[in-house]
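FAQ

Q: What does a record look like?
A: Structure on top, sequence underneath. For example:
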């Protein structure tokens, strides 16, 4: 990272999560974080091209490839919510890619392509949360690379995380994020209300068995029928599905000509009694303008007026935005339909 020393980045992170800094120190640290985060767009585009090629070769057009820059509030939450302090410069998912495909078989085919690749970038870590789900119930495969390029040495050392998921795994993960936003939980970090945590653990175990995979060890002694019975009994007592049904989906005009030509989108979701959505499109040549808008909207977010989340993303088609990031639209319809089908078995 020639543009920023790791020491300076780590110090900025420490300032941003500290309670004992003045406003000038905070603003300076935030500026450095934003500048450092924006650097990830270059390696993201490099890795996105490879991922698209792999997905197209094994899964065809019905799959989704998307990228995003991690939101500042999420970066700070992640630093503060870990049991062991995380240094900002070591955070591996500031630049993130994800592929969503139909089955675990396709996930494994893409994984094998990465295993066999002769990339010049350094493989930092691979975590198989399908074979060994997280205690929260999260499933998917994460592959982290450290960028390395003689042609672009200023970006060397930046981490890019690639997530490979099936549609079921994606529905589960984005439903968790939707509950976090709309009900002010922190389930993504295995925190928040016990009822929600238990609900999503049970659903994850059922989803795993539906895909002929092992659930988390806490549920491996149970059959799918036993897990479904427990989920339905639990929901009759806690009424969590009914709460999910109160979330209203926000929509936007996908046929707007500007949206269809865009390469980047800044999505702005506001929750203030009801949810509203704004989508700001940017052409490939407007990458810097997209990042500037992203920063401005994040910093102008006023939690006293309404809870807001903002994200900068890129997908290959405007029609896939909501499927790639349904949590930003409050869209858990497919998740609920899947739960309903389970209940009818």
């Amino acid at each position: 990272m020639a543009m920023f020393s790791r020491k300076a980045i780590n110090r900025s992170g420490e300032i941003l999560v500290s309670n004992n800094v003045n406003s000038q120190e905070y603003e300076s640290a935030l500026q450095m974080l934003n500048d450092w985060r924006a650097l990830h767009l270059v390696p993201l585009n490099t890795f996105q091209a490879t991922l698209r090629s792999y997905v197209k070769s094994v899964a065809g057009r019905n799959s989704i490839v998307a990228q995003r820059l991690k939101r500042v509030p999420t970066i700070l939450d992640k630093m503060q919510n870990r049991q062991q302090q995380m240094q900002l410069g070591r955070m591996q998912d500031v630049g993130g890619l994800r592929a969503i495909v139909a089955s675990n078989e396709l996930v494994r085919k893409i994984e094998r392509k990465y295993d066999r690749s002769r990339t010049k970038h350094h493989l930092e870590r691979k975590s198989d949360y399908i074979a060994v789900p997280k205690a929260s119930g999260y499933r998917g495969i994460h592959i982290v690379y450290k960028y390395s390029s003689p042609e672009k040495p200023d970006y060397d050392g930046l981490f890019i995380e690639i997530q490979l998921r099936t549609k079921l795994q994606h529905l589960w993960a984005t439903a968790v994020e939707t509950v976090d936003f709309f009900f002010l939980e922190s389930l993504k970090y295995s925190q928040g209300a016990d009822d929600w945590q238990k609900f999503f653990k049970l659903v994850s175990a059922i989803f795993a068995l539906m895909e002929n995979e092992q659930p988390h060890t806490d549920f491996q002694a149970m059959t799918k029928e036993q897990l479904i019975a427990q989920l339905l009994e639990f929901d009759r007592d806690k009424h969590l599905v009914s709460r999910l049904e109160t979330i209203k989906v926000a929509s936007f005009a996908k046929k707007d000509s500007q949206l269809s030509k865009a390469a980047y989108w800044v999505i702005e979701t506001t929750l203030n009694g009801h949810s509203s959505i704004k989508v700001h499109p940017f052409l490939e040549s407007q990458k810097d303008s997209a990042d500037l808008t992203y920063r401005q909207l994040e910093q102008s977010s006023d939690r006293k007026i309404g809870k807001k989340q903002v994200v900068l993303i890129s997908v290959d088609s405007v029609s896939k935005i909501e499927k790639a990031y349904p949590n930003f639209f409050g869209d858990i319809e497919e998740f609920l339909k899947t739960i309903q089908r389970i209940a009818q078995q």
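Q: Is there anything notable about this one?
A: The longest strand covers residues 307-315.
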